Amino acid sequence: MAARIHGGAATALSTFNPKKLVAPSRTNLPAARSSKRCIVAGGGSDASKKSLSVRHSQKLIANAAVATKAETSATTGTGHELLLFEALQEGLEEEMDRDPHVCVMGEDVGHYGGSYKVTKGLADKFGDLRVLDTPICENAFTGMGIGAAMTGLRPVIEGMNMGFLLLAFNQISNNCGMLHYTSGGQFTIPVVIRGPGGVGRQLGAEHSQRLESYFQSIPGIQMVACSTPYNAKGLMKAAIRSENPVILFEHVLLYNLKEKIPDEEYICNLEEAEMVRPGEHITILTYSRMRYHVMQAAKTLVNKGYDPEVIDIRSLKPFDLYTIGNSVKKTHRVLIVEECMRTGGIGASLTAAINENFHDYLDAPVMCLSSQDVPTPYAGTLEEWTVVQPAQIVTAVEQLCQ
Amino acid sequence: MATSFSATLPLHGSQENRLLLPPIRLAPPPSSFLGSTRSLTIPSSRRLYHAHASRRSPVVGVQEVVKEKKVTNSLLITKEEGLVLYEDMILGRSFEDMCAQMYYRGKMFGFVHLYNGQEAVSTGFIKLLTQSDSVVSTYRDHVHALSKGVSARAVMSELFGKVTGCCRGQGGSMHMFSKEHNMLGGFAFIGEGIPVATGAAFTSKYKREVLKQDCDDVTVAFFGDGTCNNGQFYECLNMAALYKLPIIFVVENNLWAIGMSHLRSTSDPEIWKKGPAFGMPGVHVDGMDVLKVREVAKEAVTRARRGEGPTLVECETYRFRGHSLADPDELRDAAEKAKYAARDPITALKKYLVENKLANEGELKTIEKKIDELVEEAVEFADASPQPGRSQLLENVFADPKGFGIGPDGRYRCEDPKFTEGTAQV
Q: Which SUPFAM superfamilies does its entry note (chain A) (predicted)?
């Protein structure tokens, strides 16, 4: 799936400059976030734009809920192919090369290379202090990262599994989120807290948690979720460069996604959503792994004659209400598909935000498909039923579009 | 435990920047502690076993050293140092007494925790530090901030919730921060400051070893006896010793959490002993005697600056007032309070200065008067300062206010003119 240009696409194309490496501001959008297949390589010509809209429908991820290889279309030749965890590593390594204050801390990030290989090779290159193997004490090493950030470093704190960060909740909520405020703006906490979460393959209840719902209320932090190698690298770099504390949610099942990403440097905007597939009939908002379930359902839906607009919200806190709003104003129907729990999840907040801001534009109530409020069971069949499946998405769209 | 410092050799060959821990030595290097001839090293398991039984262990009380020094007839401090210490303790005491008055007059609210009686610990340690050294404290942090150099005006204004406070009125009593003086707070939950202190010490080590800067900054973390039953404390003792961080853990053991006696809540109440369990020296000192505290502090700070790692110092001290201004303080025994009141650190230092002819009553009175005026002036300043306006509400939530996101109109929320008024929808 091509990452789509959104927002002021028309003007942005004409202002595109492939040499600009900065995070795209609102007026300089697509340079960094546009499809890697066309714009970055050559230039925003009309021809490539047209071919883009034809190509996107062929780019939906086939059958598997988790793709291991994205369909590649004819590319313009630049860029290199890699897996999502390698994209994260590349982003991290580039930032560590760029700024010696960037360091990594976490369990098994050094000699072991990271339990999902995101920090592979970094300890060899940067040393044991810059890529710090910590003991198993999440609360303390998260706090240590925060103290280091207050005194000038830029740590990237890894939770081996996001669920383990529940042990660090004290530090994340009280210190990470609040210290900038309670110190009257004197100390900044430019940390990145990252790790894999989400429902995997029969990992059991504790290892299948979605912490975005617990952290979303903490004032002072930003949360983003990556879903493709392209946005993984871009968000990693943006998060490291941000002066705010950012929590970057990765997903256990997405680490082996393969995609071609640009050779030149780029970063993604932390606060913006990503247009995955423009459409007319209904807005489907999603993030992380559910993006792939949605795209799979979209294939079926297209065959049935529907035209869903799919947006990967990417920024879980704050929501990009501009992209979302524009979409709602166009389609008047919203379906949220998420892996978070039903109660108090991201979808619940998003539903509230949409109802509050765009109520007049809705033709139907906002529908939210979330995971069941059930501790993720071990058994494969049960686990499958706790998570939203493409068939449910198709049914929901059909229901909404009646 | 003897091998706690002998970590596994680097797996990938020995590059210079990979040596986090010193290579294995057959015998740990001797390092003399407190100027004594007893070598204080990583305690062997044999020693650890006996540490419980005998005071002739690596972890010693300070009394012996002080006696040794007195025998040679040299004083522990000079006149200048003595007056600095005296002034600092008087400032702490007067300030806290004024806080109590202001609280009961309705000028400050919430939870206010006063430091009366514990001044020796703050003065004893912090007056040895430089501006670039860091201090981390708890909710009982007014005096730590004052000792570190934050002006009485700024602290008082913060307590009054005024814009001129050190944290613009946004923190309050339990959040005294100062970037200028490297006062890293002020934390409301016990124990949550200790990892932050560990992080500050980590930065110091990082600057030296990765950034190759000339940095020997140390961090002093203050916390209480109740905190020593908290997991974060132990996790940080482990990491600090493991990475040999330049940090000093100072336990202000005043024997009481709110109403929970230390003896009722702790299986082994001797906190200093927990240091050697993690591979660092543990020292017990009389926290009502500023000179003894200072001697221990000197050694601990020098150790840290030399890169020899952390120290755990347990200061036996006492708070003359309740846990906070809301605490009726009915549980503590009157006899216990009287016993410690007789050991008031300020009276003790005064006696020492006068008896050893370092200062006379007149000079000390002058200091007391000066401080009284300073504190009065701080109150006047705080009274006269404005309260924060609405415009301040949304500032400082994020260092980069783009973090509030993009509104439905396509602009960032922080670009909305109402943002600076504090009335924007965020």
A: Thiamin diphosphate-binding fold (THDP-binding) (SSF52518), TK C-terminal domain-like (SSF52922)
